[in-house]
Amino acid sequence: MAAPKHRRTALERVEKFLSETYFTDCNLRGRLFGDRCPPVSLSCFQTPRRIPYDEAVKQEFRPAQVGDSFGPTWETCWFKVELSIPPAWTGREVHFVWESDGEGMVWRDAQPVQGLTKEGEKTSYILTSSMKETEPHSLTLYVELACNGLFGAGKGSMIAPPDPDKRFTLSKAELVVFNRDVYELLVDLEILLDMAQLLGEENQRSSQALCAANRMVNVCDVTDPSTFPAARTLAAAFFSQRNGESQHSIHAMGHCHIDSAWLWPYEETIRKCARSWVTVVRLMERNPELTFACSQAQQFEWVRSWYPGLYKQIQDFVAKGQFIPVGGTWVEMDGNLPSGESMVRQFLQGQRFFQQQFGRLCSEFWLPDTFGYSAQLPQLMRGCGIRRFLTQKLSWNLVNSFPHHTFFWEGIDGSRVLTHFPPGDSYGMQGRVEEVLRTVKNNKDKGRVNHSAFLFGFGDGGGGPTQKMLDRMKRMSDTDGLPRVQISTPDQLFSALEKESSQLYTWVGELFLELHNGTYTTQAQIKKGNRECERILHDVEVLSTLAMAQGAGFQYPASQLQRLWRLLLLNQFHDVLPGSCIQLVVEDALQYYAEIRRAGAGLQQEAVQSLCRELLEPEAGNAGSTLVLNTLPWERTEVVAKAGPAGTETLALVTVPSMGYAVVREPLLPPQPVVVRKREDGSIAMENGVIAACLDVMGRLTSLRLLDSQRESVPDGCCANQFALFDDVPLYWDAWDVMDYHLETRKPVTTLLKPLEVTLAGGLRGSVSFSLQIGKSSTLTQEIILDATCPYLRFLTQVEWKEAHKFLKVEFPVQVRSPNATYEIQFGHLQRPTHWNTSWDWARFEVWAHKWLDLSEHGFGVALLNGCKYGASAHGNVLSLSLLRAPKSPDATADMGHHQFTYAVMPHLGSFQDAGVIQRAYSLNFPLHTLPARSAPCPPYSAFSVSSPAVVLETVKQAEDRPGAVLVRLYEAHGSTVVAWLQTSLPVEEAMLCDLLERPVAAERLQLEPRGLRLSFTPFRVLSLLLVLRQ
Ligand SMILES: [Zn+2]
Fold first, then answer.
1. In this structure, how many other beta carbons lie within 10 angstroms of the beta carbon of residue 791?
2. Contact predicate 465/290, CB 8 Å
3. Which residues have their alpha-adjacent CB atom under 5 A from ion ligand 1?
4. pLDDT (tens digit per residue) in 840-860
């Protein structure tokens, strides 16, 4: 048979032979399906709720037809489908084909059996691969149809807010005969055609592939299946021509990225997991080689409680090593904003779940789709038994191309993890020739390592792998001209990379994503909920632990705390905490925060009641004294508000020991009272003996001095606490992105509604307030507060926010010169440049921080503290805090309405470490608790203290599974090597170091000395201790 003479006609000839559009009357594609047959009957009922199968099948079903449409959005239609397979189909492969815009789940005999989604290329449920005469030919299926697509129901574009009135059409429901031999030939020819096109004309293998495909078309008579084997033999001969030894190895793993909430609510995700995973189980039954890497303990937990039958099957495939739990975390969380302790809990809840359910810990951290990665993560991974990390999101960098795909990532403490970015830059591959070629071509470390990951399966909205993806890759397993493609596991991949790791480079510090930098600010109520709930759970754990240690039968609320932690961790999912979700998700998230606040308040009250029972005054109002509780590990002297008679509040200056309490009868007199003076020009001066501030009528700081040194913070002619409004129109990802060019649209806010006036005259506290108009329709009211002895000025801010595509920031120009600013991150801090020298510098025009950022030169600096903000920047000598955004997609109502938040400015001598900026930022976030107390005298009580100000005792909780033991976690916060003594008044019998999963570290039993426990720290080291209490 002659080889093709003309390349283009040959290519197009093969294309037309496979076309779904052209010549289907006479081409191969037109033969994929044989006879068809409609259902015997089709009926449905519709419900606004997501109900279980048992409830659904009891409902009254009404007749329905193909072509009917259903809705509106988020409703569910249940279909009853009666089928009868024609006897003439004996021996044939029979599929139930279902096509609709909504996502479907097929139920058979009360069990979910197949997920169906057109967007995920799943429209068939295989009833039998060869119909037997003895099999029953009639059956009843139910199809649960969600009125949403794989990517929700955006109106017009994917990320547009959902269209509430969308209709979902059922376009196909029938039985068909599936011609497997035609399908196999189609897959052969598709691969050959792709190789012919993509390898390029100059490549010999391209011509060979084209030649083989052309010969196959010649051999095939589509009307005569007996001609197919000869064509398949031609393909097999081509595919079995092998590679040389040096060829790259691609480790293909099935995967299905399921956002735990995004363009759909949490409840729909539960069904997405079931639809996607049941499909994986069906594929595994037919393809014993298929592996599937699956993350997020929360999703396993959902399927465990909602789909126990499916879960049992998944457990079996986990045991076989095919269904592979990965990641080790509760959800794939945001990589920037959760606190250090939250990140530990992501792993603690996740790893413990995987251990309990599947008998093993995950050995890889898996976070393919998160918007940047904290430089603290390597240490946290290592502390949770993980040395390997997989992600790929940095391929989305807008400015700089990340220089590696395989490398060691080193965190702020020096911990390292082997990190791999699948070089195809996607977690949703489809097993195509183009993708495997890209995987090799893109790979920036291909001279150093010869293995890379390839995650195949539809993702984001679920979906997962398909049979066709697997069948493509089977043909590419080892064929000359393409990289080797083996179905593999994360462990096999990383083991191979570890063997070759001697040539790898190391990346030090954060993996900053140069995109999506608006996610530090969008959905301010979610950010605030996160910060507050982190504080609430911290305080409940500290106080409950102290109550437990005191004895008296207090039951540590371990299971309640686990439930609340899991709610908080779920909301840290990488489209919820970043604020990139639809309104329905925001509503759910805020409800979870409300639940944590409500239940947390109850738990805190129970702990305090037990801890301080004898001290508390049963009747508020007639108390002469005040009980003040401090959950932070250092002594604090602060002004607090205490309840007086008849609902009044009075102020008092109190001193409370570290992690403990004091009963205050006579408040302290301040060494110097706060003085507030109004001047003739309307400006106001405030001072407290520590700092002195001058504010103009618009509430702007024209001067902020340290009184001791007379050092001025505000440069001449500048104003700090200056609000500025920016146009904020990104290129596409509205809720996600703030672009560099927004900085060119800065407009200072200067429209005064109410000039500055004195609201508290001084003494223990002085305050002033003012109001501004922002933009056309928003307003801001601020109370600026100075407390006696306090080294910072506090800004309590209320905003009525009604903007569209605007960005509100507050700016503090300061008299400090430094090329770097310092930002708090999880259990530590890092520096970022204040200049835009290189593209790597200016790409970080908007960054994130936790409770503080600081700009210091030798001997002096200014810190900005905040109560619930994360977005920030420092350019030149201007510190900015990002306050509010107004994106319209995917939530058209994002951030509209009332906001209240607090930030503070703290000038200081010396370094921020020596000046106690870290401690003050904690204090701002963890207010002292006050309760009416009896007047009986009581000595102050301290449960824990730490000898070094460099070391923060962050966490005190009951140890997991060890009711008689306490877990404490400390970290070195200054970036120094230091020895610290931990003192405790708890009855500690035994102390040992443990890892972040609370597993004791062998041979690390600590000596209990009179000074306490001696602990050695290197910069930013996190240490966890188990303290066994005397019973
Ligand atoms: Zn995602």
1. 18
2. yes
3. 259, 369
4. 999 999 999 999 999 999 999
